[in-house]
Design goal:
alpha/beta, Rossmann fold, 2 domains, six-stranded parallel beta sheet, two-stranded antiparallel ribbon, 39% helix
Length: 241
């Protein structure tokens, strides 16, 4: 009997957007208007690629980026929640599916010693070039009209579950914890025994309520959280059952 916990990263595990947090490294802690206005909907990864080029051009080095990223705050209660999951790993498999990147998530989790809590992290691959510039690529290609072109979280979740089944692992329940619009697609894939945990006041919660108003509610149960302590209380009930 195992539960699968699926976490988003930005505004879920950390209380900020890791991609906009890195702007603290930029000259005067801001980006030029031309660069800021170059973002096109659905093409965030390409936009961040340009941001990283700008930082590199301005002499921002890896160690400075790492120092900045590891000051990002965790969401309220998240440190306790991840500690609790870490102590009960025999009951929980735990993955991250995020539109951030491998470098940022790795730095943040390792600095706080939480990397062992997560079995896998699915996010945009990033690396430093020989010139010392951070580069980022799309996670995968997909055909989902709902999702940004670099990442369909439903596809990631489905492929992960299929791979686990091949290994003989199936889950009693999936708990999906997120906040953003791109978390709706995987939530719509969940079954009635699963649970979606949208963060209170964020886009995912609003989109789930809109679906209910349009009389096409999601199939899974929904439990809203504002502090990660709410999530921990639910998980404690789960493992008592």
């Amino acid at each position: 009997m195992k539960f699968l916990l699926v976490f988003d990263f930005d505004h879920t595990i950390v209380d900020e957007n890791s991609d906009t947090w890195i702007v603290k490294c930029a000259p005067e802690k801001k980006l030029p208007n031309g660069l800021r206005n170059s973002y096109q909907p659905g093409h965030w990864t390409e936009y961040m690629g340009r941001v990283f080029v700008y930082l590199g051009d301005n002499g921002v080095k890896e160690d400075e980026m790492k120092r900045t990223m590891t000051t990002i705050p965790f969401t309220a209660g998240m440190v306790d929640l991840l500690g609790f999951i870490g102590e009960n790993k025999e009951l929980f498999d735990c993955i991250i599916v995020s539109d951030s990147n491998t470098v940022f998530i790795d730095w943040i989790l390792k600095a706080a010693d939480f990397h062992k809590v997560f079995d896998e992290v699915f996010t945009n691959p990033a690396a430093f070039s020989s010139a010392g510039y951070l580069t980022v690529q799309n996670f995968h290609a997909h055909h989902c009209a709902r999702c940004p072109k670099n990442l369909c979280k439903r596809k990631v979740l489905k492929e992960f579950l299929d791979k686990q089944l091949e290994r003989g692992v199936s889950y009693t329940q999936i708990v999906y914890i997120g906040d953003g619009g791109n978390d709706l697609c995987p939530v719509m894939f969940l079954k009635k025994d699963d649970i979606a945990m949208p963060r209170q006041g964020y886009t995912l919660e609003k989109k789930i309520s809109q679906l209910a108003q349009d009389l096409s509610p999601v199939e899974c149960s929904v439990l809203v959280w504002s502090s990660a302590i709410d999530i921990m209380s639910y998980l404690k009930l789960l493992i008592k059952e």
